[in-house]
Amino acid sequence: MRRKRKTEDSNMKNILFASSECVPFIKTGGLADVVGSLPKDFDKEKYDVRVVIPKYMCMKQEWKEKLEYITNFYMDIAGQSQYVGIFRLVHDGVTFYFIDNEYYFSGFAPYDGDPKWNIEKFAFFSKAVLSILPVIGFRPELIHCHDWQTGLIPVYLDNFRYLGEYYRGIKTVMTIHNLKFQGVWDTKAVQKITGLPDYYFAPDKMEAYKDANLLKGGIVYADKVTTVSRSYAEEIKTSFYGEGLEGLMNARANDLWGIVNGLDYNDWNPDTDYRLAKNFNISNFRRNKPANKMALQEELGLDQDSHVMLIGIVSRLTDQKGFDLIDYMMDEMCQDAVQIAVLGTGDPKYENMFRHFAWKYSGKVSANIFYSDDLSHRFYAGCDAFLMPSLFEPCGLSQLMSLRYGTLPIVRETGGLKDTVEPYNEFEKTGTGFSFTNYNAHEMLNTVRYAERIYYDKKRDWNKIVERAMSQDFSWQNSARQYEELYKSLIGE
Ligand code: ADP
Ligand code: GLC
Predict the structure, then answer these.
(1) 87 plus 194 within the same structural domain
(2) Crossing angle of helices 441-457/323-333, nearest 10°?
(3) Which residues are listed as membrane-spanning (predicted)?
């Protein structure tokens, strides 16, 4: 008997996002922001977009308590039969599914453990995502996969076609949020974990440089590939940014879209943000924004002075973000009339570097080596400028948050930073921030000092830049329409 197609009685398209993190449940970086906010902005008349993530034990208790248990079954992975529990929660109008398995998801953080363990963990997740579909009563026309952790989904889907009609015709999109992370391990081991036939472990499929590469599998097997800015979509076709997969990116160039990220403009709104000392908007920031700086200075133990220029950094502390340039120039920058505040965790060498400078320039530099969502909002609101001199940046959300809160980004012209921050042009009176081209510490310092000059000597111009920054629209409005176009090209209207 022919299965009754859903589209015969409705034009609604079912889309399933699969990701390893998602706000407000679990977050280590911008991926979570994107997966947690984008689904809300699709046309609800046309798309039913749902999200599936792992049910991590390290998720906050308040969320775990809200989840509704659906069902469970057993599935083969890594030579064992493993429990797959399914939970569900409708939050902010979006349905979220959580895949439960305490053996894999009981760590203190989503990616703790060695690389092999992470590969096994997300191989389990990827196979489980496909396996739960028949039992949750939601057959997606398209699965939208995010980053290497879900790279096996398009591969398994190819393999599952042989199981019967159910899986045939489901389309996939693979979004690359960061090409640096690919999920690479020894081929034999990955073969054993995934249980996939030899066929998939060839250089034109999952194999890369003799190892198995999960992201590569996703890129090869997905119907379309996207990344999170136009510039990064171009950059990853070159050897400097291509992380060894530039050949593949070129091969798939016709199917590769660059769609810039947006922000949840309700969560990130300086006019209503309850975490701030004083709310502000584009018409009253001159009067109200300084109160946030004073409050932040007090909170961080910096000298309280509403006139001094406060430069903020909120970031994972990794090489990607340009911290070696900052390390090189920190003493120089601290000779100027500026304060520098950091909120971040990551590579111990950078954590210790900032601790050191906070000790050396006490009252002027503040190092906050921890993760705090609430404090990050106060950073974006209270600082005057935001420093992000990344070596590479697929999109970057921090500079978008800064723009929204009238904190001017100082960035290197790469990836999404180049696409979202327009450099100040003092002759044409245009621009929303400051930027430099080369990955060079002196270029960065010159640009910071240029920003200082505008801040101190041309305050009216500075405030005009703030006005332009705050009037930019980086909500999901535009980008969600582009994703809809992309889906349309695969599954029609
Ligand atoms: P990436 O995803 O490469 O880390 P993005 O700029 O896209 O970079 O996103 C980073 C996100 O993580 C932003 O929402 C930023 O505010 C947040 N973030 C990074 N470090 C911290 C921290 N220590 N505390 C709170 N938020 C943080
Ligand atoms: C990655 C990138 C960052 C991007 C984020 C969300 O973590 O490093 O540039 O904004 O994903 O797409």
Answers:
(1) yes
(2) 50
(3) none
CB 450 within 8 A of CB 233: no
Exposure string of 284-312, with b = 16+ CB inside 10 Å and e = fewer, is: ebeebbbbbbbbbbebbebeeeeebbbbb
Same domain for 352 and 217, yes or no, is no
Do 253 and 294 lie in one domain? The reply is no
CA of 147 from ligand 2 middle (Å) equals: 10
Tell me if 398 is assigned to some domain. Answer: yes
Q: What is the pLDDT of residues 156-165, one digit of tens each?
A: 999 999 888 9
Provide the mean pLDDT of the chain. Answer: 97
27 is in an annotated binding site: yes
CB 465 within 8 A of CB 431: yes
340-387 pLDDT, tens digit per residue, is: 999 999 999 999 999 999 999 999 999 999 999 999 999 999 999 999
Find the domain containing 56 and state its range.
Answer: 2-262+477-491
How far away, in angstroms, is 325 Cα from ligand 2 center? Answer: 20
Task: Report CA(395)–ligand 2 centroid distance (Å).
Answer: 5
CATH code of the domain covering residue 466: 3.40.50.2000
Number of domains within the chain: 2
Q: Whose CA is nearest to atom 1 of ligand 2?
A: 177
pLDDT of 3 > 70? The answer is no
**Ligand 1: distance of its center to the CA of 344 in Å?**
8
- Whether 29 lines ligand 2, by a CB cut-off of 6 Å, is yes
Q: Please state whether the predicted TM-score (pTM) of the whole model is above 0.90.
A: yes
User: Does residue 304 sit in the same domain as residue 434?
Assistant: yes
Checking if the pLDDT of 9 tops 90, the result is no
The finding on whether 19 has its CB within 6 A of some atom of ligand 2 is no
pLDDT band at 4 (very low <50, low <70, confident <90, very high): very low
Asked whether residue 134 is domain-assigned, the answer is: yes
Give the residue ranges of DSSP H helices in 318-407.
Answer: 323-333, 348-360, 373-382, 398-404
